[in-house]
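Field log, afternoon session.

UNIT: design team B
ACTIVITY: writing a sequence onto a fixed backbone
BACKBONE:
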């Protein structure tokens, strides 16, 4: 019971931090929308940030976390006598050196080869006979040069954010979540300030935002340092020989390699999607990013929080062979994600246009930008449940030291996305790219459940039955709540039309959300839903 309650207890603390982070991230996107809209510079920034951000996800968030935390937890579980403490300290030194060395090499190499990578994301005009060929060529060269400059500015972000992720791994391994949860708030705040302060002094606002990205990454690492110091662990370098011969670090590398392959397959979805978007037309790449930001606001609020908290707990239960509690925790986490994802998806399909207009529509973000973003958002939000479930199910494999099966699922998902994106981009442009990602996420979820059968500790039938039945229940509840919400939303949209951006779009969104929420909560209370009961008990305390 303690392990089950730890999800909600730790999740509530981290959720508060993550909520602030996602709100600030949204404000950052609103700032970008105001300064850049869906212009060429917006596409250039989205493309340039995507390249180091892809590597950040490989080295920092996923590979380091899933490989480092389980290994660190094993060291901690061995006790705190002098010998074990010394071995753990050497492991931390070696891992810190490994992370610093590898990411520094990648950053230097990335800055050098950037000009050779950028043409992949820019479609050069191919018809010299076209009447506007000279204009097209000039636009292509401008976009190509701008992406190169922005990428080189932001590439060092990979180094500092990888160090920040290593610090987060230590803190999370010690079950300290708040500092790491707060650092993205600082990052987003710095990017926003840099955009407003530096834009008048740079060639365009995209460069001001890029400078903010690298400064914000440095602050993320530095902010966590005092909290690391309080844990008693010393962070410093050791020799490369000790780094690559340390047993713990070698285990981390063993776990990292297949994880990087799997995550590379998954994260390359962004690379392919961005390349296709840039070749499809102006504004497509940036509109996809604005849409994904809305999805990530919801996803990050709960899925990332629960996923971050559940990994150390699942690792501890796996190490102690407490498989009944392991399965119960996994089922509860899946149900929490389902309880959130399905209703949010239903509501977002009703209020998407007004929500996008409320958040983004100003200055450079016009009606055309709203239409582009809304089209992508409808297809992105359809995959919310599957993306959330993937964030929960994968730690169940990682907690037992198995990275190969989720890696395989990621590769399959990548293949599905590539094929669908290539086909659908021609038929549906940006909407097709968004739909391809959602379908690929569905396939990833399906294969994760299929691969569970190979994990003896996981009761696949019990987990799958609980997930499917609860999902069907949430679909029914959401459909019922959507009916009155749809009519109220339609009425409110007409009533508040012409009252300005905040009232004209905000009032329908707010009133519709209240109606949907009231009906949904009543359904859960009347049926005495088990998950809402757990949450209510914690709130009462």
């Amino acid at each position: 019971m303690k392990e089950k309650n730890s999800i909600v207890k730790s999740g509530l603390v981290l959720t508060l931090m993550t909520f602030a982070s996602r709100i600030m991230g949204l404000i950052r996107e609103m700032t970008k929308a105001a300064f850049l809209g869906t212009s060429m510079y917006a596409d250039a920034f989205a493309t340039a940030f995507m390249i180091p951000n892809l590597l950040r996800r490989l080295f920092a968030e996923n590979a380091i976390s899933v490989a480092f935390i389980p290994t660190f937890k094993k060291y901690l579980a061995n006790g705190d006598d002098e010998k074990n403490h010394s071995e753990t300290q050497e492991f931390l030194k070696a891992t810190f050196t490994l992370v610093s060395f590898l990411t520094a090499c990648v950053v230097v190499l990335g800055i050098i080869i950037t000009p050779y990578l950028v043409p992949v994301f820019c479609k050069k005009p191919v018809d010299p006979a076209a009447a506007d060929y000279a204009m097209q060529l000039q636009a292509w060269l401008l976009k190509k040069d701008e992406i190169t400059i922005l990428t080189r500015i932001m590439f060092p972000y990979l180094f500092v954010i990888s160090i920040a992720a290593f610090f987060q791994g230590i803190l999370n391994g010690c079950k300290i979540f708040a500092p790491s949860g707060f650092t993205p708030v600082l990052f987003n705040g710095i990017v926003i300030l840099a955009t407003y302060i530096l834009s008048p002094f740079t060639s365009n606002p995209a460069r001001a935002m890029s400078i903010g990205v690298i400064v914000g990454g440095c602050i993320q690492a530095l902010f966590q340092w005092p909290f690391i110091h309080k844990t008693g662990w010393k962070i410093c370098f050791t020799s490369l020989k000790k780094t690559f011969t340390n047993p713990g670090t070698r285990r981390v590398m063993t776990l990292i390699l297949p994880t990087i392959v799997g995550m590379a397959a998954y994260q390359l979805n962004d690379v392919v999607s961005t390349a296709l978007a840039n070749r499809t037309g102006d504004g497509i790449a940036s509109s996809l990013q604005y849409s994904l930001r809305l999805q990530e606001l919801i996803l990050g609020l709960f899925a990332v929080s629960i996923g971050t908290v559940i990994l150390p707990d699942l690792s501890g239960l796996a190490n102690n062979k407490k498989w009944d509690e392991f399965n119960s925790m996994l089922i509860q986490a899946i149900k929490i994600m389902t309880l959130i994802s399905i209703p949010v998806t239903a509501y977002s399909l009703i209020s998407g246009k007004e929500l996008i207009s409320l958040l983004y529509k100003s200055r450079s973000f016009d009606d055309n930008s709203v239409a582009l973003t809304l089209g992508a958002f409808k297809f992105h939000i359809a995959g919310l449940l599957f993306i959330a479930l993937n964030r929960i199910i994968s730690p169940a494999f990682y907690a037992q030291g198995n990275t190969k099966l989720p890696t395989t699922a990621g590769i399959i998902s990548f293949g599905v996305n590539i094929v669908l994106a290539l086909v659908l981009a021609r038929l549906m442009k940006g909407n097709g790219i968004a739909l391809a990602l959602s379908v690929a996420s569905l396939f990833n979820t399906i294969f994760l459940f299929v691969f569970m059968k190979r994990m003896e500790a996981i009761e696949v039938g019990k987990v799958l039955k609980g997930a499917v039945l609860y999902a069907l229940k949430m679909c029914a509840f959401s459909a019922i709540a959507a009916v009155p919400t749809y009519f109220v939303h339609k009425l409110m949209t007409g009533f508040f039309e012409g009252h300005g951006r905040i009232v004209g779009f905000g009032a329908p969104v707010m009133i519709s959300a209240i109606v949907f929420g009231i009906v949904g909560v009543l359904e859960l209370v009347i049926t005495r839903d088990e998950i809402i009961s757990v949450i209510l008990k914690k709130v009462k305390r």
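LOG NOTE: The longest helix spans residues 40-77.
NEXT ACTIVITY: expression trials, pending approval
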